[in-house]
């Protein structure tokens, strides 16, 4: 524990990078998931097929390969990216593709007659989505989507493989440096601390998700009672 406390300023820098990478990827992947998931249930056949192909490709490629591809190939295309940006793009696309499938599944649960009834009453397409379909679909979307975000936060540790000095990378450096200088490896205590950190942050995310889910269900019960 003394080793952890002695390196706490360095560790805090890694935590800051991890949290920032998590926030950026959660925000970007959520936008991607909502847009693609919504378009995946439209009546436009070409749009649905294009989105399905995009989603299946990203879901079928290992995340590690995706990260390496973005990091090493984009410079060959004339696109300059830092290690942080490459990790953020890779993680956002991967989580966005998985999230799009969750959103699509939640939207298709809603009976088709509700769409047709709303359109018959004169609602525009965006009004049907926003006012009728999405509020009901959230009950099915939130639980698996929170699980997807939890996996995303855990996956930020893969940024270490392309040089992002996030939490895992920082602790890896501490283990290597201490082993060289002191002649013994503190791997057990350091990686136990890493495990505890990810457990805490993912537990907090799951707790927040359950709170949001309970509020959504609470609103639905109130509407039903009314």
Question: Overview of this structure, please?
Answer:
The protein is mostly helical and 226 residues long. The chain is built from nine helices and no strands. The protein has one domain (2-225): MetI-like (MetI-like fold). It has helices at residues 2-6, 8-39, 45-60, 63-73, 83-108, 112-120, 125-155, 167-182, 187-225. The model has no long low-confidence stretch (mean pLDDT 86).
Descriptive labels:
226 residues, single chain, 0% strand, mainly alpha, MetI-like fold, 9 helices, 82% helix
| CATH C-level label | Mainly Alpha
Order of helices and strands: HHHHHHHHH
What's the number of extended β-strand segments? 0
Mean pLDDT: 86
CATH architecture: Orthogonal Bundle
How many helices? The count is 9
Helix content: over 70%
Gyration radius, in Å: 21 Å
Low-confidence stretches: none
Q: Work out the strand percent.
A: under 5%
**C-alpha termini separation:** 56 Å
CATH topology: MetI-like fold
Structural class: mainly alpha
Count structural domains.
1
Q: Can you give me a brief rundown of this structure?
A:
The chain has a single domain, classed as MetI-like fold (Orthogonal Bundle), CATH 1.10.3720. The protein is 82% helix and 0% strand.
